[in-house]
User: Which sequence fits this backbone?
C-alpha cells in the first residue's frame, strides 16, 4: 500500500509535491542492476521533468523520463548475482525501510557528475533531507551497497555529452 511519506520541493517556485518510497527494483529492461530507491509520485516526476525540460539542452542530451526519475539509496549490484534468499532478505529490509516517515525534501541545487563516454555526464538535482541521508545509511548497512561512491541525495534529470557545456536550469 503506497502512502505519502514526505514532500519534495523540485524548484525555487515553492511547489511542494510528494515522494514515495520504493522497495528494491531492477530498473528498465535494458538495465540489469538492482537498487533501493525513493520514487517520486508520477505527478511529482512530471513536475520535475517539465521544470527542467525548458533548459537550453545541448545536442545529444538524453532527458530522464518521469517513470525513470528516482533517488537511489543503495545500489546492490547485478540483479542476476543476488540469490533468491538474499533477495527475500533485501526485500523484507526494504519494506521495513519504506515505513520511514520522510520529512520535507528540498531541492538544493543542480550539479554535474562525471559519467561514461557512452552515457555522457549526468545532470542532477541535489536533494536536502536528513531523513534521506539516514535512510541511505540504513539501506547501505542493512541491505547492501555495491557502489564505489559515497551517498549524495540527488535525482538524475539528464545525460549530456561529455564535451558539452553544462546548461543553466532555472524555474
Assistant:
Amino acid at each position: 500500500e503506497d502512502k505519502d511519506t514526505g514532500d519534495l520541493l523540485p524548484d525555487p517556485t515553492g511547489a511542494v509535491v510528494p515522494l514515495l518510497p520504493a522497495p528494491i527494483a531492477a530498473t528498465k529492461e535494458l538495465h540489469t542492476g538492482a537498487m533501493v530507491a525513493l520514487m517520486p509520485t508520477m505527478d511529482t516526476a512530471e513536475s520535475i521533468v517539465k521544470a527542467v525540460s525548458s533548459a537550453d539542452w545541448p545536442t545529444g542530451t538524453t532527458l530522464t523520463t518521469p517513470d525513470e526519475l528516482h533517488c537511489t539509496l543503495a545500489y546492490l549490484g547485478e540483479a542476476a548475482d543476488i540469490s533468491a534468499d538474499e533477495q527475500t532478505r533485501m526485500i523484507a529490509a526494504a519494506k521495513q525501510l519504506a515505513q520511514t516517515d520522510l520529512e520535507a525534501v528540498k531541492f538544493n541545487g543542480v550539479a554535474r557528475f562525471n559519467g561514461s563516454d557512452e552515457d555522457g555526464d549526468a545532470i542532477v538535482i541535489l536533494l536536502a533531507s536528513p531523513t534521506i541521508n539516514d535512510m541511505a545509511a540504513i539501506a547501505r548497512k542493512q541491505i547492501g551497497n555495491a557502489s564505489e561512491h559515497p551517498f549524495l541525495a540527488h535525482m538524475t534529470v539528464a545525460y549530456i555529452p561529455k564535451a558539452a557545456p553544462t546548461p543553466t536550469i532555472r524555474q
User: Anything to note?
Assistant: Residues 84-97 form the longest helix (14 residues). Residues 126 and 154 are 4 Å apart (CA to CA). Confidence is low (pLDDT under 50) at residues 1-29.
